[in-house]
Amino acid sequence: MMRISHERGGSRGNVPARSCWRSCVYALLLAVCVAPAASAQNSEGARPNPNDRLDATRWSAMAYRGWTNYHTLGRTVRFIWDYVGEDVYGLEVAYTFSPETGFGGFFDRILAARFQMAGKLVGRHQASGSWIREVDAYIALRWRHLPWNRIVATSFAIGDGLSYASRVPDVEIFTTEVGGTSQLLNYLMLEMTLALPSLPYLQLVGRIHHRSGVFGLFGDAQESGSNTVGLGIRWHL
Question: Among the four 29, 105, 192, 220, which has the fewest Cβ within 10 Å?
Answer without folding.
Answer: 29
